[in-house]
Amino acid sequence: MDEQQPPSPRVAPVQLEDCIEELLKFTLTSAIDGTLGVDIGLSKHYCSNLLKEDPDSPCPDTSVLSEGVPPYPLYKRLAASLCQCISSRAFCRTHNKMELIDEDKSWKQKEDEWNKSILQHGSELLNILKIMDFELHVQEPFFTQLKDGQKTIEGRCALGDYTRIGSRSLILFNKCLVLQVQDVHWYATFHEMLEAESLVKVLPGVGTIEEGVQVYRKFYSEDKERSNGVLAVCVTKHTSQLYNSLAAILLVRILALFYMKCHLTICLEDDVCIWYPDRGNSESKLDGNVTVNENMEKLEERIGFHLIVSGIEDANFPGFGYEGVQRLLGFVHTVGTVPEALLPPRSTLLSSFLLPHNPNIKGSTLTDGARALTKHVNRSGGRYWGTFCGSGQSLMNISPPFS
């Protein structure tokens, strides 16, 4: 097999625009499969739709925030908007305010709250990037094994900047996972390394040392291995993770999660127990049918305790949630807007203006797309969409722009 030598590790600084897409994709994927460690409040179906591809549309140019219907996958547009917000340390509209559309007056207050979230958690994210020393890419299944803590040693040939990696170095893997180096060991060959370090720590799932050597042979020739030696980079998961800061930004209003979904860790001197507010805790005899505050008052009457909201540091800074995400995607909210809804792919929208709404009625030219626009009548007041009357063709002429 041809040698596919992995590139030398990228060194600091790591730029936000270079990693935000993969970081957001990793965060949404982890939220879907339940491995993120915190419930961001966005449904799995919603997160899946953000990641959904549109095979009938060209790959979008994420370097420019264009107006109109955002192209799929939507997470790329969302990532570009988040990057703009975090870099400017403020919530940024991705569209110009339309004077002819009446928006909910509460939006100003919501945007003020989102500004606080960006300022706090966006700054946390940028600060983590600043302390990165190296950046590496690992193929599957080894990346997942690193993330889950099954793989704790990364083997590389001792070339270039790999020789600069040392104890306590911080490495950003696959633009989303921060691991800290505990130690670095040098060996003459990969065979020697696998024997000394334990195969299960270096290549989990590989049956024999000989098979493990063949894994590395796909990337390094035997001559290169013997000429330079190899490194066993021992790593552990760092306490500060980019995806935790990003999850805090996306989080559906923290106070709602506090009352409904989050786990409360109650530290009782030497004992720690988990209380699930949605169903109570049989050990502490809490009533799952009353509010969190009422249950807390009952606890305070019985025992003294220190309360920690797992994964949430400050309940005063609500995250974006559905409404904030839609805002970053360029959606305009009016009375009747469904917060949990996402636009279908551009190709689906365009095809809807070619499909007859009543194909069995002779002479009817009204399309599905034009018919759907009539639902905006009560919101527009004849000011933005125009007057809804006439033939299907006239309705098609006032369809939204697709840029």
UniProtKB/TrEMBL annotation:
Pfam families: ASCH. The lineage of its organism: Eukaryota, Viridiplantae, Streptophyta, Embryophyta, Tracheophyta. Residues 136-239 form the ASCH domain. It comes from Escallonia rubra. SUPFAM superfamilies: PUA domain-like. It comes from the Eukaryota. InterPro entries: ASCH_domain, PUA-like_sf. This is ASCH domain-containing protein.
